Amino acid sequence: MRQLKFDNYFKKIEEEPLPIWNKREDIPEYIIKYFDKYPVRVIFDDIKYYCPFCLKELNDCYCDHCKQQFNKEIYLYVNDINNIKGYQYSDFVFTFDVINDEVILYVIKRVTTYNNPNVSVPFYYHFYKVYRAFHITKKGIKDLLNNNIEMTFAEMHQELQETEEIYILAYDLIDDDESYYLYVDNLDFLKNTIYKYTKLWKLKDYLLDTKVNILNIIYAPLYNQDFEFLIKNKLYNMAFSTFYLEDFNNKLKKLYKDNKEFIIKNNLDYYEFKALELIKCQDLDVIKFVSNNIGLVKDIKELANIDFVKLKNIINEEQLYEYYDYLDMASKLGFNLKDKNILYPKNFIQEHNKAYKQMQLVNDPNIDKNIKKIAKRLEANKYEDKKYVIYPAPSIDSLIEESSMQNNCVRMYASSYSQDKTHIYFMREKSNINKSFVTIEVKNNKIVQARIKNNDLPSQTIENILKSWEKTLKDKKKNDKNVVS
Fold first, then answer.
1. Which of 74, 84, 282, 467 has its CA 20 to 30 A from that of 395?
2. What is the 3-state secondary structure (H, E, C) of 217-278?
3. What's the pLDDT at 389?
4. 385 in the same domain as 428
């Protein structure tokens, strides 16, 4: 129990504040060392990976200059590596502390800063701070360092039911929605606290190498009434991801009973559990394939009765939305969605593009004819230097091909392009002229947008070329009687 004392005006009695950490000097050295679990991040631009210390290009994640091996998957994106002066990123460590049976969850932040060795003296350093100090009670949490952050578990539950996204709520709490490591060597401290029924201290081996979202260690153990049951059955992934209690209690318990051995053996998480419910198939690879796209899979199942084991053989996870798009077009075009050749085409991308072309031609057979005429007129704006070429998209087929290679939706601009409302140009590297590089939209001789693959922004070097080219654009729309609107 905390001591009681009078306030500054001797008018009322209040509890003595908890003696929490609040500055760098308060952070134990064992927490500082715990950050070593995070690998150094590799620098990444549009194409290549670089050593964060010398900015030399990596050779299969190895720096020949610094003689260091890196984890390629932990990277920091930069737009133009040659012109940045420095770069930084943040990591967090969660750690519990107990003061007179009161539970504090600290969020310790480390900011790593680098100087670009190409433009200044090379160095990097870490800055540590006590970022949050959550006092956790039976009702909820309060950040003792920031009075603006206070929330009950009931409020958390309500928000989760409304948004169905733990990441939104996590961002509200610590301005970050990623998962990080929890310091596990002091979990025994929780045995005589409000965490006594959670058995968190029994999960040291699991949590040692498992990153967790902040809600995994606050909301899930204390508010999920099935947490203890799930831990007892060693369903750790499920325990730390089951946030939607009504769904689990009312809909999924029979599924658990019918598939108990498979679920326990593979330690399914909540989304994998939901995937099992959707596809009713004890194939772990297929369940993982589906689990990251639950909403999209539901939409696909509304269009057709899909065997996801067969579907996984013809597409990858990144193509699920395109598959939904394909089924939607196939349905509108009157295809037989019970025909296996339609549902599982041998060349999915080719059949998707055919369906799209059919949709365009059904809607307006003059589109391709108009695009070709407009592109011929826009040839006057063609750009070429020693390395790059920019030219107008010449046809519907070129838009479809660009869309496929760039993983963007430029094909959807076919109608407005054919009506002279917007113009589409392709920028290509002359050394690889048949490969998409930058897709450009122009309106009234001004660049509206320019994107590389996956709708990312091009580098500053490319931006500069495009700005110079933009100044040369001269197109006066002609009243071509052969262009059908």
1. 467
2. HHHHHHHCCCHHHHHHCCCHHHHCCCCCHHHHHHHCHHHHHHCHHHHHHHCCCHHHHHHHHH
3. 96
4. yes
